[in-house]
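Quick start: load a record and inspect it. Here is Metalloprotease PmbA:
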Amino acid sequence: MAQAFDATSQQALLTTRAEEALALAKQLGADAAEVGASVDQGIGISVRLGEVETVELSRDQGIAVTLYVGQRKGSASSSDASSASIKATVEKALAIARYTGEDPAAGLADAALMATHLPDLQVHYPWPLNTDEAIALALSCEQAGRDVVGIHQSEGASLSSGEGVRVYANSHGFLGTQKGSSHSLSCMLIAQDENGMQRDYDYTSARNPIELRDPGSVGREAAARTLRRLGAKRPPTGTFPVLFDPTLASGLIGHLMSALAGGALYRQASFLCDRLGTPLFPSWFSLEERPMEVGATASSPFDGEGVQTRDNRFVDQGSIASYMLSSYSARRLGMQTTGNAGGARNIRLISPQTSRNALLKEMGTGIWVTELMGQGVNGVTGDYSRGAAGFWVENGEVQYPIEEFTIAGNLTTMFAGLVGIADDIDTRGSIHTGSWLIDAMTVAGS
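Running the structure step on this input writes:
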């Protein structure tokens, strides 16, 4: 990197700036205030066909101030953390607060809920990687894929590595800081036969660089995923069971969490409004978040309002057990925050698991989906319709690749029709899940 990143000194500086902003807000007459500040630095490399395409060294910082005058709220932000900029930002937020309408739900989270248990969750692992080393890793990843027989072309390989610091403070006296890191390596390749070209990719991602997969294995897996798509056909139209690959099953959980989010609920923009305590999944399925999991992708001891995070079970034995609430959305709904300002952290399933092959056998004849396209999900009704690609399955065996078809259903019936979950858990993101088998969806193909 162009300049060493000293996370500890940045943490101290942001803490000072946040305290400065809070003191100034109080001095200027704000009744309450909260400040979020962050700084991130990273390197990004992309290569293609053995040549370097881009080298990007980035450094971003920002400070955001939210002030309350009674129940009037004003927010302002700046990318400059100097004292002069902080003064201007606080003054701007205060001016906005004085002229906005009152909102009975506005205000800081309750003081009694502020985080007091602030352990080191081990999410900061710097990678002392110079530009030449980063380029070499990306090149070796791509070359490993290009060396596989049948690979025709490359879309390239990319490496990114970054670390940062965030600070949140408010006028309750809470101040929390966290250092973090994120590293990834990916490769996308192209293969061609008489039916045309196909492309696919693979990637590895981790907080700790020693947990990244070997660059060669990423390139070879990208090649294998690309080659298996050659000769794709369109599937027949009909109603079939559908197996969602783990990366796509995590998307289904994402749609669930969006529907459980307080913002969608109080706006009556969720298909799960007024469903608390009602069945949604089979009774063997439970889902929870574990924000204090050591070393995990989204771990944090406090949420975006300084509230102590905690394990939350959102689905318990098939029924909706909890919504996902910030203080504001909780007040709008007449409930209490679940410590989810800023979203859910580290979603984990609690359910029986079997092998993917066992689910394919149980499927019999149907579709294994490995790619989805488009954004055809209606959060208000739960209607689901996406373009897809994957594999046709007969008698529990994969027959051939398929493409240019759509799958459609409704999330409520899809969740109720969950047949099983595989043990091929994808741990690269904040949602950990294996493949999902849904009993029936409408397929529009040939």
